[in-house]
Structures are given as structure tokens and as C-alpha cells.
Sequence to fold (167 residues):
Amino acid sequence: MARNTNGRGGSERTKKIEQAAFELRRQGASFAIICHTLDLPYRRAMVLGRAYDEHVGHPPAEPKRRASQISLPGYTVRDGTRSGKGTTPKTSDRGKARISSQNQVTLPVAALATARLKAGDPLWVQVEGDGKILLVRDHDPLLDFIGAIPGLSAATDLEHLRDEWDQ
Fold:
């Protein structure tokens, strides 16, 4: 079962890792779970996972992407969602953000979607008090009036005005 994928005889540690990867894959673990649990490069986890799939003739019938769905004695099964935890973030943590050492903040996708903000939107930063900052979309009020007065452009004859500048 523990086949060395590079064709040479493997060390005891290599065989143990291969057996662990095969057991994880047998339980339906994704390549990411194999990678994070066994502390392997993702490419190596893919090779081992595919070797198991080839050995049994098919990929897992019910793939699992959460560490909490899999157990492996002697290992802490991790899925990479939270360092050292092996589980997805708690619901109460999903709205949290942290300021990096370079004063950057990654905003939660759900919060951006709810506020109808997207990457590249200009924002004003307003300090609301101690520990409270408000981000407000930069909005040009003149944009509200574009096209609001029908016939204005025909009455002003912009082409005629532009021709006057050239004279």
C-alpha cells in the first residue's frame, strides 16, 4: 500500500507519511487537508492523494474539506483555515479584521458585499472616536444630476461653445 512515488526505496518516515496520506484520502480528505496535516508541500500532497486514488481506482466518493470531518490517530488533522486550530473560524470571528504591521486591513467579503463596495472603490476614512473608524464611499454629488434635466445639453449647444474656444 505505501508505495514510494519516486521509484526508490523510501525511509521509514516516508513510508509513515505515505500511509498517513493514504488513510486521510481513504476518509475523503482533500489535498489541502493532507498538506496541512502532514506538513507537506501541496504538490506532494496531490501526488500522494492521486496515488491513493489510482490505487483504489477512483477519487473519494464523498470528499471532505473540513478537518472536523476526519480523524487520524497520532496526528492533529488540519485544513488550513486557522493556524493550529484545524477548524473553520467561529461565526463570531467572521466579522473581525486585524491591522497589519504596515497599517493595512483586509475587510471581510460579507461586509463589503452588504455595503455594496468592491475592490478599487475610493473611500473616505472618518475617525468616529476612540477605537472607531468609519469608511465611507467617496461620492461625487454631481453624478446624481447627470441626465436629470432633459434637454439641457441640446439647449446649451456644447458643440457651438467648443467651436468658440477655437476661434
